[in-house]
Design goal:
The complex is a heterodimer. By secondary structure, chain A is mainly alpha-helical. Helix content of chain A is 72%, strand content 0%. The mean pLDDT of chain A is 85. By secondary structure, chain B is an all-alpha fold. Chain B has a domain at 28-86. Chain B has four helices and no strands. Chain B has helices at 3-21, 33-50, 55-63, 65-86. Chain B is flat, with a radius of gyration of 22 Å. The chains are: A mainly alpha, B mainly alpha. Chain A binds chain B through residues 32-36, 38, 72, 75-76, 78-79, 82-83, 86, 96-97, 99, 111-112, 114-115, 117-118, 121-122, 124-125, 128-129, 131-132, 135-136, 139-140, 143-147, and chain B through 48-54, 56-58, 60-62, 65-66, 68-69, 72-73, 75-76, 78-80, 82-83, 85-90.
Chain lengths: 155, 92
């Protein structure tokens, strides 16, 4: 939590749970093509894993694992992957976000290229949603005063 | 009594909206415009055009990809704005 908090049972359990939550998030993301799921849902599940780390440990540990700079970079990277896929289609001579033309650079036919183009933008959505959710959570729960809380704890 | 004009405006707007909603097609009406050509087109062509077995994904990411891109941008903007409004760093 935000304040000093230590519990062996909760922290050990969370250490076991977090990899499985992250794996499940990747499953939700990767199976978005054939079952309910996709970037938004997978990103939220991935963010939940980091929120769990924050709840079980403290702000210091959460920021050590996923710092603010990394959060901002990942926010921008997600949107960049999405828009970059669109621009790649544009540069290959098609319309914006018309993934069929990606077959010129991918070793597949145009129909399969649409499949992989969708996977690419879902990856962008996943990264952006994950980073934004963690960032909003950290800012709301500490009221934006990370340093004061860290100082209060003497960390 | 300052709230009276706002209250009247709300009632008038509500009446206008309800009046406009009268014109909407019935819920789950098979003859509504969207069900006549848009939905069948997606249902029939999704697999052969995009090789994706899930129609929701193909509509979200391919046919309506532009929409989803700006949804992502909205989320990105929300994150940045929350950080701008709330974050008070000692130093970056």
């Amino acid at each position: 939590m935000v304040r000093e908090f230590e519990d062996v049972i909760i922290q050990t359990l969370c250490r076991f749970l977090v990899p499985f939550i992250q794996l499940y998030s990747l499953y939700v993301f990767a199976h978005g093509h054939s079952s309910p799921g996709g970037g938004f849902q997978g990103g939220c599940v991935m963010a939940a894993a980091f929120v769990l780390i924050f709840i079980a440990y403290d702000l210091n540990e959460a920021k050590r694992r996923f710092g603010e700079k990394a959060l901002l970079i990942f926010c921008c990277l997600g949107v960049f992957i999405y828009a970059g896929t669109g621009w790649a289609c544009l540069l290959l001579g098609s319309n914006f976000l018309d993934y069929g033309f990606l077959s010129k650079v991918l070793p597949t036919d145009p129909v399969k290229a649409r499949y992989y183009g969708m996977a690419m933008i879902e990856l962008g959505v996943q990264i952006a949603v994950m980073a934004v959710m963690v960032s909003i959570f950290l800012d709301l729960v500490t009221r934006g005063e990370h340093e004061e809380i860290l100082e209060e704890k003497g960390a | 009594m300052k709230k009276a004009p706002a209250f009247i405006a709300i009632i008038i707007t509500a009446f206008l909206l309800i009046y406009a909603a009268e014109e909407f097609p019935e819920w789950a009406d098979p003859n509504q415009p969207a069900s006549l050509h848009v939905s069948p087109r997606y249902i029939e062509k999704t697999v052969e055009e995009t090789a994706v077995p899930n129609m929701v994904t193909s509509v979200l990411a391919d046919y309506r990809g532009y929409d989803t891109m700006f949804e992502t941008s909205v989320i990105f903007t929300a994150g940045i704005v929350v950080m701008m409004l709330l974050r008070r760093p000692k130093k970056w």
